[in-house]
Amino acid sequence: MPVNHRVSEVLQRLGQAAQEDGLMSSGEASSERRFQRQLVKSRLGSAAGLFTALRCKHASTASHSLRVALVCSGWAASTDMTSEQRETLEVAALLHDIGKIGVPDSIIMKPGRLEPEEAAAMAGCRQLAVEMLTTTGAPQFVLDTILTAAAWFDGSNKELPLAGDQIPQAARMLAIVDAFDSMTTDHVYRRARSRERAVAELFDFAGRQFDHKLVKSFAELISRDQRVLSDQVASQWLAELSHLSTSWETYPTTATTRPGDRRQRGTNTLFEQKLVENMHDGVVFVNNQQQIFMWNTGAERLTGIAGAAVCGRNFQPSLLQMSDQKGSLIDDDDCPVSKSIASGIQVLERVGVLGRSGRHVTIDLHVIPVYDDNRKACGATILLHDASSETTLEERCQALHAQMIRDPLTQVANRAEFDRMLSLFVEAHQDTELTCSLIMADIDHFKYINDTFGHQAGDEAIVNFASLLKSMCRSGDLVARYGGEEFTVLCADCDNATAASRAEAMRKKLSETTHEKLANHTVTASFGVTELQPGDTPESMLRRSDRALLQAKDQGRNQVVQLGAGMPEEPPKNRWFTFKPWKGNALIDTALVTNVPVDIAIEKLRGFISDRKARIVLVTEDQVKLEVTETAQGKLGPQRVPYVVEVQFSQQRQAKTNSSNLAGGEYAATLANVKIRPKRERDRRRSLVAERARLLLGSLRSYLMAKEQNTELEPQEL
């Protein structure tokens, strides 16, 4: 099927400089609870007490609701919705999860799969929210929006058989933003997805669970500067607040808790915090109810569970799928932590826990009960020591880190050391199939700083920025001065979403730090973030991060932009390429399919062309031919092999019908027929050619956010 005229126009522009829209790491509207209370009260008034109750019950759910409401408000402002409709959407978004107040903690905080009766209790949250809000006199259209947001666009939700326009527009928008924020947030059972991967998931369910037109509108919305959008919405909300609340809301706090922090501020001295945070072993603090309030980086590294997702939950053997030395799972009733707290006796056991690789890891579990001067139980300190004989990736990175060559001004790694370490990082993480991310940062308007305050002041700004980056990194990470006022941060064992969150924390901290030689002014920086993708080379990963940084500067500076869908969550069951006979045929000839519209897929191809430094050979109405040079390590050293990559785009339209005919229609999927072959005939005989071609296809697949159309293809004999 030929593509439409719009696709032809986009393909014809591929020869121009590739600029791909980035996905902004927005974070929460504010990290201060007082500010959040003001935001909520400005929208809910007396009903803000319900939101406060939700925060006391489950703080992460309340923060999720606030983020959803801010994004919904910004989205509504870009549509033709009336002010009344927009206000309905904002209030419904803030209160859509209020029903979780009535759900037992054992269900909300359960780390594993829910039982059928537990899932039913969670599914009833919307109805419970409606019942609670009805007693407060909430308007009917707010109640309808909350309830119908659970309906599927094609009407397939049997519990709520509404479809298409029967579902209010506000409810359809709420469903999309709710799902997006959930996918891009850390949970105890799953790490956050990158924003590009979350967008691909929304398109995957467009026409079924979500309104396909609104999904496309939302994808365009989040390509903008989300931080600026959230700030504008927050300012609008606060402008409607007639006065500050009672004096306790304005009482100054001694510390600020930021989203995603793994500890409660004020519980340890600065030195103790630094010690615990940088320990290689896992360190966990629990109170006398076994509720976790500290989960250090070592625990994250060992278990793969983010601190932001686990804090507030109870430490139980089921959280880590803990087993004894015989391999039998330990029941929650036999928890060694609860026994230690109850008896006041230390526990030292060798147990197994589920590690981040999906395999059980042997650890030494040391539980130390903590009592006050009156012998009242306060909780326990839990040490998790990796007892396996394998050398971890982090230990290898730390050994290399100690040998690095430093930049004389900032005392971080210099450009040469970064180039060397980048290759090692990529190779090590590809071997272990773990994620790693790259952050590039550049001080904004640095020439103005030098011209106004002098070069010594500029040097101080550079040194302070480097110190800030080092202070906010973990052991195993690498901070390097890339050149001038530009820095890079290699984040070991870190995915795209986590790296973007860390970059946002760096950005915010820098913007709040004053500099003495700059007359106590502050400086800002722009950040570009990316994650290692299948088929990546160190060069392509670096270019993608640099492209994200350029977009951050183009969009107004002082912000974070992330690019790249990251490593696949599940490897394909079968190979998604096929070998053909060598002569006269492509080495790889396969079809990739993605649910994003064809024009978005082509825009993603721009990023592939830019990052791989591909040369465009030919562009037709629906096809583009590229030349990409890959470098592989052969017997005689590095060898450069040029490939010809042909991509032909087409649209597949899938007709979907519904008994009500309200969700019927055709939904577009994009098909990309891909052929890859060596440019030179003599290269066909090299064994490394096939492997590099496979990695090249994997990279293209990640950029297009595509899946193999036919998983049954098997490689033929060469």
Helicity level, as a percent range? 40-55%
**Count of helical segments?**
27
Taking the sheet with the most strands, its summary is: 6 strands, mixed
What is the quaternary state of this protein? Answer: single chain
| Low-confidence blocks of residues | 1-7, 13-31, 241-268, 570-584, 659-663, 711-718
Counting helices, strands and paired strands, the structural category is alpha+beta
Instruction: Quote the average pLDDT.
Output: 77
Q: Mind telling me the C-alpha Rg?
A: 27 Å
Widest beta sheet: strand line-up: 1-13-12-7-9-8
Number of strands: 19
The end-to-end distance, rounded to whole angstroms, is 32 Å
Q: What would the principal axes of the Cα set say about the shape? A: globular
How much of the residues is beta strand, in percent?
15-25%
Give your account of this protein's structure:
The chain is α+β, with helices and mostly antiparallel strands and 718 residues long. The protein contains 27 helices and 19 strands. Strands 1-13-12-7-9-8 form a six-stranded mixed β-sheet, sandwiched between helices. Strands 15-16-17-18-14-19 form a six-stranded antiparallel β-sheet, covered by helices on one side. Helix 2 (33-44) packs across helix 13, helix 5 (83-95) packs across helix 9 (140-148) and helix 5 (83-95) crosses helix 10. The two termini are 32 Å apart. Mean pLDDT is 77; it is low at 1-7, 13-31, 241-268, 570-584, 659-663 and 711-718.
